[in-house]
Amino acid sequence: MKASLTFLQKLAYTLISICLIILLLYHAQSFFIPVAFAALFTLLLISPANAFEKWGISRGISALLAVLLTIILVLIIFYFISSQIIGFKSDLPKVGQQLYIAITDLENWAQQRFHVSDQHLKKFIDSVTIQSMTSTSAIVGSTFSTLSNVLMYLVLIPIYTFLLLLYRHIVVGFFVKSFGNAHALSVIGVLHRIRLIIKDYIFGLLIELLIVAILNYIGLLILGIQYAILLAVVAAILNLIPYLGIYTATLLSMLITYTSNTPAAVLGVAIVMIVVHLIDSNILLPKVVGSKVKINALATILGVVVGSLLWGIPGMFLALPILAILKIIFDSVESLQPWGYLLGDENGHTTNNPSNKSNQFFMRLFRKFHIFNKNMPK
Questions:
Q1: 300-307, long-range: CB within 8 Å, 24+ apart, which pairs?
Q2: Phi, psi of 375 (to 5 degrees)
Q3: Mean pLDDT over all residues of the chain?
Q4: Fewest CB within 10 angstroms: 32, 190, 274, 328, which?
Q5: What pTM did the predictor assign?
Q6: Sequence-distant (≥ 6) Cβ neighbours of residue 140 within 8 angstroms
Q7: Rounded to whole angstroms, how far apart are CA atoms 376 and 239?
């Protein structure tokens, strides 16, 4: 008779498995990042692809139309942002001059405040400059590497999304066959809930981003801040990063504002960003996004940090959707429910198995894929 594993043995196997998964995700990030984004876009585009198929369009053309419409929408948004960046680029020499004056004022203040001689301060600045120059080649190499990765992702993500949409029934069938017919309803239920929640989450996130950008723009426009549209849009995009994004957006906006405005305007920008963030956190996020899966603040921050360490900026944006998917899976598997409880908040609850009505829906949905065995219950 096979002896059962002790708690420490189970814990050791679990930790080893987690470490191996993390190593795989880190070293193969060039593969997993576009696949993760493509999976999210696929979950979002299943509904329009199904709508095109109902109109009599073939599955391949429906998937292609859904992807092309998304690309056109992204290009429109990119054109709007790039036009604002071009306007900012034309004033970049002026901004650099103002920034140089600000650094000079900071040097003078440091000399007076800390009684540092001009010679020591100059020596310190020269040493920092030399170190910066020696690392310039590394920075340039890193920049080219990042740009090449971005271009590769821009090519791979639409291709992966199209293929996942085209073969989505095969992907669903793979997961069901992997767990067997005995768990077919549970697997279909989990996949269905993941699709609905991620779709609602992304749509809600886009609406939230638009509202936050408008509120930021109104506040900055009232203050008379230059580059109000650019700062409002950048702050709204960075706000998508939970908890950490607002601080980055506020500091960046204050720095750019300081190069062309008074200190009072800089303080006003900080107040606008904080007030909009409070409105977003207490009103927009729970009402507009309204995800059914509740992730506590600790798990969210840790997820964002781990995502940043593994995949950089893309990992920070993907952290919350991946945590939401993991929680649905953990809540649906009895042996993994403690992990789902660990991710949830105090008001969170374990997802129960689908009701009989939902079971009938999943059964009809699954039979349509023609992958049930003949002995499957009617």
A1: 300/242, 300/243, 301/242, 301/243, 301/244, 304/241, 304/242, 304/243, 304/244
A2: -85, 15
A3: 77
A4: 274
A5: 0.71
A6: none
A7: 48
233-277 pLDDT, tens per residue? Answer: 888 888 877 667 788 888 888 877 777 677 788 888 889 988 888
Residue 352 is encoded by which pair of tokens? 């129960």
- Going from the C-alpha of 144 to that of each of 34, 82, 131, 147, the distances in angstroms are 18, 20, 20, 5
